[in-house]
Amino acid sequence: EECAQLVQATIQALQHEQAHGSYEMSFPPLIPAAESVLGYTNTALVLGMIDRIQTQVAADYDCAVTPSGALLAWLAPPPEGKAGSSPKDSLNFNTYWVPHVDKANRATYDISAILYLNTCGRDFTGGWFAFNDEDSNRLVAPVRGRLLTFTSGFENLHQASDHCTTEAQVQRVETGNRFVLSVWFQAVAPQAASESSFFGPG
């Protein structure tokens, strides 16, 4: 099963960081050295998955796109005593769950895509995806194989969120481990992407 194989590839790439107590770990599978870390089979799987996501995004947003970045990400609960281990640290800007805008990281991020590799409630708790709208948070449950896409600008401020709250308070993975493949695309016609629907088919 492809998602399970991608989880194992992520663990393989990041197990050294995890052993040293990291709780926000990521590996960029598009770098030239990726195959030396992931191996040929896993690298081929990741690149093939990115190609399929690219095809889906291009169709959904009706514009040609090219990958601008990608990460295999492994999120875990922060250890006790670490910054962010308390809900009081929910707005600590060094934590992965602080509200953010993808395009602020890189100008070529026009469309964001997240492929969930495991499932909330079975493999981990917490770690839901929240779009931070003015009236309330719009929550998306991580489910293995679910693809979430959205435009990457300020119209889609978002964060990882605990599903029990509609406020920015307890935004973290509480138990277990959350795995995703995130890909960011540059649109050949950015205007077409910005006028597309709020959600992709996720």
Task: Report on this structure.
Helix content is 25%, strand content 28%. It has 4 helices and 10 strands; from the N terminus they run αβααβββββββββα. β5 and β6 (137-140) form a beta hairpin. The longest helix has 22 residues, at 40-61.
What are the key terms here?
4 helices, three-stranded antiparallel beta sheet, alpha+beta, disordered C terminus
Gist?
This protein is an alpha+beta fold and 202 residues long.
Low-confidence stretches: 83-93, 163-170, 195-202
Portion in beta strands: 25-35%
Provide the structure class.
alpha+beta
Write down the Rg. 16 Å
What is the general shape? Answer: globular
Distance between the termini: 19 Å
Write down how many β-strands occur, each being a DSSP E stretch of 2 or more residues. 10
Placed side by side, the strands forming the largest sheet appear as 1-2-10-3-7
Total helical elements: 4
Major sheet description: 5 strands, antiparallel
- What number is the mean pLDDT? 81
Q: Helix share of residues? A: 10-25%
